[in-house]
Amino acid sequence: MRGKSILIAGIGNIYRRDDGIGVLVARAIRDRIDTKSKRKSEISVDIVEMNDPSSLIDMLQSYDKVIIIDAVMGNSMDMIGTVHTLSYRDIIDGSGGEVVTSTHTIDLKELVMLIGMIYNDDKDLTLIGIEGYDFGVGEGLSPGLMDRMDGIVSSVMDKVNEIICDS
Amino acid sequence: MQNHSGRWRELSREKSKDEENGSKDGKKKGSVRDFKVDYLARVEGEGAMYVKIVDGTVNYVRLKIYEPPRFFEALLRGRRFSEAPDITARICGICPIAYQMSSIHAMEYAADIRVEGMVRLLRRLVYCGEWIESHALHVFLLHLPDFLGYASAIDMAKEHKDLVKNGLAVKKLGNDIISIIGGREVHPINIRVGGFYKAPREYELQQLLDRLDRAKDTMVDIIGFLAKLEYPDFERDYEFVALKHEDEYPFNEGRIVSNKGLDMEVKEFEEHIVEEQVEYSNALHSRIKGRGSYVVGPIARYNLNYDRMHASVKSISREIGLGGYCSNPFKSILVRALEILYAIEEASILIEKYRMPDDPYIDVYPSNAIGYGCTEAPRGILYHRYVIDEHGMIKEAKIVPPTSQNQKAIEEDLYHFAQRYVNLPDEELVWKCEQAIRNYDPCISCATHFLKAKIER
Q1: Pick the residue with more confidence: B321 or A60?
Q2: What is the predicted ipTM?
């Protein structure tokens, strides 16, 4: 019997300051998860990073579970580094609060809705959003987010492990 | 017709003088209509449009965009030449291959190296993948809703599910070509100056052949469907600029030519094209010296290279009545679809010819030299120039993306197009203008996106 397949996608641009947090956390997780040993068991885990969420359209259908790690834009420095977790239903229904994306090609909510609509598929999808503050051009996270990096990675790792264990 | 107020669009308008005086007739003498769109729906990145109408006449149009290559030019200074492909790939989330290829060709030019054989073939093949993926995204999810009267791809998919599903299957095929050649785990990491870190085995590519055949049939049907759409009757006397190769439809190589006499080597680009700062935009506007605006992208490529298209694609273009020349930017959706078909056929031909090379790359060490590269990104020619010091470090970088080259022509289109529909209510006029912008598939703020969150618990 085929085991469960899980996709972890870190989305963002590492040259747009805090926009890169999703990619950097995905890289940190890659170092902590032994994807090869996972493949030998019942579960396979692929970790990818991408600048643009439209690539997800081509990938979502190939996995049983999808975890998207992305920067979210908060309103204050006080909340920087806060980790939010939203399910597919939270995103579709807006029950997890108002979550919107920019105009970058097709936004994440539209993308998820489109996939669900075309393939009649309630995706087992989790969005882990990390609040950033500075989305201007430049290398490296803003100091406030960088200071919280270890805690953010631990927090996201816990959520990822929880999802993997439930599979 | 549905509500066209895109979610991300923030439309604001200053009151006209007549409205302030209690009159609603915007055509009366002394009326001023301004509308400003802070976010352009279904355009990649962040952009804004401003149109000023005085006494029923369009006074001026401004397209305000943010352009990241300037930052990347600074970032590249002091980096090793071999880092350029990976760094510039981050400029655009949709066309990383184009940025990699232009930088690679520039570095190889600086080292006086020419890559041939199977490595050259793989470069054409990976570019086929990028055109298929990028064009399919634009045709099926971003541009087609305009012609069918929907506000978004989601609204369109409710009633045209199979059309969107087939379009996404074509897009996925492009993505899979890129993944096999470029590597999937992260960004296309397998591409380097001199070739590829690792060449794919024949069977990895051959497994795509059946899907390419099916995608070809899909696109022939879709082109027939697109040809029956109603297009605004809008044509202007453009100067089209594209690469022209001696016997191929261009991806990576060729001279830069135009329909009005431009014919130059890539290294002469800056002798004929100038970039100008405009006060209202971070982006530089390009123009041809002594003339003015010009257009790059699918229509330019098609018009200047129709004779290099496969006979089967030319046959279909004749059947649908397009022929070998198009000067209606709204029909760019048709030309993109024809280019998808070309790229699918070309990919099949290249895969059939492909034999895994013994050496996937050759060593390239540019030093104390200037390198020039220009390739055909999905949106048009993408020019790179690098000055390399004696240690192989980048002293200076210049990147001219297609969108900044098209920006002046887009504004001119808007000026004429908005005038034609000037009596429409603001919201409908804005929607019309957005369509005119989307004709060019502008990549306004390459490689950034974020989620704006307001979460209450």
Answers
A1: B321
A2: 0.83
Q: Is B168 on the interface with A (CB under 8 A)?
A: yes
Of B223, B457, B200, B232, the C-alpha closest to B354 is B200
Cβ-based contacts of B142 with chain A (< 8 Å): 105-106
End-to-end CA distance of chain B: 37
Of the partner residues A97, A110, A131, the one whose CB lies closest to the CB of residue B456:
A97
Which two three-digit tokens encode residue A59? 């990938």
**Residue numbers in A near B137 (CB within 8 A):** 54, 105-106
Q: What is the pLDDT of residues B57-69, one digit of tens each?
A: 888 888 776 656 6
Taking alpha carbons only, the member of B151, B314, B331, B329 closest to residue B228 is B331
Model pTM score? 0.88
DSSP A7-23: EEEEES-TTBGGGGHHH
For residues B48 and B37, what is the distance between their CA atoms, to the nearest angstrom?
A: 5
Q: What is the mean pLDDT of chain B?
A: 85
DSSP-derived pairing of the beta strands B263-264 and A4-11: unpaired
Q: How far is A82 from chain B (nearest CA, A)?
A: 11
Q: What's the whole-number mean pLDDT along residues B186-198?
A: 86
CB B236 within 8 A of CB B416: yes
**Tokens for B33?**
């209509």
Residue B327 makes CB contacts below 8 A (sequence gap 6+) with B235, B236, B237, B238, B299, B303
Q: What's the N-to-C CA distance of chain A in angstroms?
A: 14
Q: Which residue in the block uniquely carries the two structure tokens 């149109």?
A: B51
